[in-house]
Amino acid sequence: MSPTEDAPRRSWSELSTDLAGEIFGRILCHADRVRFGAVCRQWRISARRNPLPRQFPWLALPNRTFYSLPNSAFRRLPLHLHRHRQLPHAQSSCGEWLVFQHHDGAYTLVSPFSTATTMVLPRMPTDPSVTHDTPPPLQKLVVCSPTLVAAVVGTRPSQLLLCRPGSASWSCRHDRLQALEIQDMVSYQGKLHALVNSGDLLSISISEDDDSHAGGEPTVSSVDCLVRISPGRRTEPPLYLVESDGSLLMVRKENHSTREGSYSDDDESYSSSDEQSNVILNPDDDDSYVPLYSAEQIELQTKFEVFAADMAGSRWRKVRSVGGDRVLFVGHWCSRSVHVVPDVHQGKAHNIGDLIFFLQDRGADGYGGQQWRTVEFFCTIYDMRERRSQLFLKTPLRPVGSLGTWLFPPSGRAAGMSEHC
């Protein structure tokens, strides 16, 4: 009998909790973390005892499927809400929440990571200056806390609205917010921070009244400009605002649709570009499917500039790296920074960060009104070190009102959650 046959078989449950915890901390995919906790009781305990960095997101698509990064397969998203516009008509996302619109105009927020968890938001108010009774379009939604939600609606100018989940109406009136076009917004250090299309950064304080839990309306108590861009140095959208490792970052996407003017690589000045924009080849108006090779080409030519908010100097400071242990995920509805563990190979640690994953924004160029036809959807990676983009994912879909959105699993709930896979 060989020595291997004499050796007693060991159970996976005998793996030390420390080693199991180290393994668990290197798992980036939410579904794999759920499977880890299902192996045995000891592994489940280890998963619960080890606090996790924020996980890689899911990519939710309008065709009722999702893709769990960093590597996965397309899977169905089993969500159905009675009397709501279902996927592919999910309105947007916010962190872990998918946003569905009720037929009467109200909204329901559902976490696909725990379908028992929902929030109900009221219908958006209509503009009294407009004759028809159509609410302004929802542009951005931020869940600040279990008792406070902020929304950006309308365009040119946009409007900031506040409400408490379960309340009957939205509220917010502040003179300094009436004529702005808000590009992005995050909850940071207990306040709302808004990035407007000029590149200015605003800090918005929300009044939490003593009777807030009894139905009191949240109100804006003050608005402060933390970073002000002079008119000669204005930047151009699309712009994203991301909290990363305690700092606020302005992420600027540059492609053919970005108008002339950019921050130079040599300094922080704003300069005019003499380069001609790439030509977009719009598809014909017939009913046949037209491959959108121009859209893919545009995505691969996309570059990013990243700036950190210097509050003391009231300026944006250009950074050439987002961190070797950081990956940014940016999109129209939701953007986040994720901490990644260095990959260890042959005893050496290799950074796998300093990347930006990005999606086509709503109304992306090259689609030419093809929202009811099959088009190619792209998820692309921009490498901050190499200063170039590479294709990560391509799949055909019908962009019914949207193209795709990030969903971020909530931290600390990896084990014991229902697995939609």
UniProtKB/TrEMBL annotation:
In residue numbers, the region (Disordered) covers 255-281
Q: Which InterPro entries match?
A: F-box-like_dom_sf, KIB1-4_b-propeller
Where does the KIB1-4 beta-propeller domain start and stop, copy by copy? 66-361
Cleavable signal peptide: none
* Name this polypeptide is given: KIB1-4 beta-propeller domain-containing protein
- The organism encoding this protein is Oryza meridionalis
